[in-house]
Amino acid sequence: MAPLSARIGPSILNADLSQLHEESEKLLANGADYLHLDVMDGTFVPNLTFGHPVVKCLRNKIKDAFFETHMMVQNPQQWIEPMADAGVQQYTFHIEPVLDSVADVCRKVRESGMKVGLALKPGTAVEAVQQYIDSADMVLVMTVEPGFGGQKFMGDMMPKVQWLREHYPALDIEVDGGVGPATIEQCSKAGANMIVAGTAIIRADDQAAVIRDLRSAVQSAINHGGQC
Ligand SMILES: O=C(CO)[C@H](O)[C@H](O)COP(=O)(O)O
Ligand SMILES: [Co+2]
Predict the structure, then answer these.
(1) What was the ipTM of the complex prediction?
(2) Does the Cβ of 198 fall within 6 Å of ligand 1?
(3) pLDDT tens for each residue of 80-133
(4) For 73, how many CA atoms within 13 A lie in the half-sphere containing its CB?
(5) Structural domain count of the chain
(6) Residue 1 lies in a domain
(7) Nearest ligand to the C-alpha of residue 146?
(8) Which CATH number do you get for residue 113?
(9) What's this model's pTM, rounded to 2 decimal places?
(10) Is the CB of 14 under 6 A from ligand 1?
(11) SS3 of 49, please?
(12) Which end of the chain, N or C, is less surrounded by CB atoms within 10 Å?
């Protein structure tokens, strides 16, 4: 099994979406390990962003970056094939709307060739993912209510991250929402190794420095056994 690695995936949610390609290229040039693409359907969350046609256009311009879609949608089954066809490598969906068919959705995502991410809203107990861990490649612990960028980080989600790291030492664990230089220490100590940061990177004068500092905080917690 590959050792855990620290990876930084900027969210383009609060970027200038009229310049999606340029903004994405800039993030990658500044050291982003992957792109976190927030897909919202206006039903699961009270906001709308973009869907697979936009992701496909971005993929046509950017051939080699790892794309994760964070599916904040009511019906995650519906978008598996379109997102796989659009060139997405990881399909991270919320379990809340599909609690009675999580295993089935996981199977279909894997059959489509994408990695599986299971996302948890702040109010969802972490134990809810336990029975699906073998079917998943990553668990995303939301540190804000999904729907909007620029919200305040919820430090009281860290026990969920700790619980996951204690029970699954090799699991990829992602945090998303209000993460940045001021909150990275809590995330890295708790055991997160995949870090989504939107506003903190997009609005930074020196994106490369922020990405580098976030990654080194997480990598150093991994190296020094500082997690948990
Ligand atoms: O999923 C999300 C919101 O639902 C975004 O990924 C997240 O909010 C990132 O933005 P920021 O770092 O500004 O909070
Ligand atoms: Co997100």
Answers:
(1) 0.98
(2) yes
(3) 999 999 999 999 999 999 999 999 999 999 999 999 999 999 999 999 999 999
(4) 22
(5) 1
(6) no
(7) 1
(8) 3.20.20.70
(9) 0.97
(10) yes
(11) coil
(12) N
Query: Is 38 known to be catalytic?
Result: yes
Distance 56 CA to ligand 2 centre (A): 18
Return the structure tokens found at 61: 């311009």
pLDDT of residue 225: 77
Residue 206: active-site member: no
pLDDT digits (tens, 9 = 90+) for 155-203: 999 999 999 999 999 999 999 999 999 999 999 999 999 999 999 999 9
- Structural domain including 103 reads 7-226
Q: Give 117's strand partners.
A: 92, 138
Whole-angstrom distance, CA of residue 11 vs CA of residue 37: 6
Taking the alpha carbons of 95, 195, 49, 143 in that order, is the dihedral positive or negative?
positive
**Residue 175 domain flag:** yes
Domain annotation covers residue 2 = no
Confidence of residue 5 (pLDDT cuts 50, 70, 90): very high
User: Which amino acid residue places its CA nearest to atom 4 of ligand 1?
Assistant: 146
Nearest protein Cα to ligand 1, atom 12: 198
Contact between 133 and 168 under an 8 Å Cβ cutoff? The reply is: yes
Pocket test for ligand 1, best of 151, 175, 210 (most atoms within 8 A of CB): 151
